[in-house]
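Re: weekly structure request thread

Next one in the queue (341 aa):
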Amino acid sequence: MLSEEAKLILSDPERIKRRDEWFSRLSDLFDGRNNEYSDRYVFTLTGASAYAGMPSDRECVNWALDKLAKMPEFTGNRFCPLCIEYNPMGVHFIDYLLGANVYTNGHQWYNDTLDTPVGSLEFPDYESNPMWIDARTIAEQFLDAGVTLPVFATPILSSPLNIIVNLYGEEALVAMMEDEEAVRHDLEVINTLIRALHKWYRDNIPQRQLQCTVVTQRAQPPGYGQLCGCTSHLLSGGMYREYIMELDDALLGDYQSGGMIHLCGAHTQHIEAFRSMPHLRAVQINDRAAADLEEYYNGLREDQIIYLNPCDKMPLEEALAITGGDRLVICSPIEAPEKPA
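Done, posted below.
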């Protein structure tokens, strides 16, 4: 059982007020409004997460909440939201719900591709799937705790392109050239499932506490969604527009304010498509994708925000020289730098 002390800390009105002030500053950035913070500083984000264990342990969420309550409040010039996360099977959670064999090797999750051909995917009875029941139980335990300061992250709900490639490997890409009907069928099944899971979280977690995965580096204002665009580096710009763009935009459009796409490879061939997606409000770039910051900054719309994980390929100083700190969220455990003169 969560201690009374932890409950008081994690429902402290003053800490909630400070959290909401940070979310308000982030909303200002998304909406193109300036305030004292955005005039002087580049928005900087690095949150703190605690991971819930298996729901068979009735105290797993309380243990994670207790860990958050014991963390000293960060009072510096950086947004540091507290978050509960539960990521069953990592990026293969949706694969499992669709019938793939998912397993671990060391600390990494993998899946075997399906034996069935592209085009034969059936919508699963996900509500009776034990892994979804576990995920739902974790969310319900979080709600039962009754604390209002931490946010709650969905599992990795991924995206239709990521999942179809997980399920079929290179055969999914071959089918895009040879069997359009089969590919469109399976992509629709996948996207319908992912959207149904997002809807469950929107219907059950209060909006001001609901976030998508990796909150520590991708927190958005309440009311925004997220999808994973990793595998789009395998597609040409034309192929993404033909098969994927409308599905991704529809998924983000289920959220009140649209949402974010995560990118970690070479994706600049899709900037034209990203620019034309009305519900795409942010891109998050790390590793290889971070090297292309200038192309994203110049190619995206003025109302599309860039979340950057600085790295050797794109150090902070270069990022600030390119953008002047505008439309930029720096995901790094540093104090917010002042905007360049």
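Residues 180-204 form the longest helix (25 residues). The chain is about 45% helix and 15% strand.
Next request, please.
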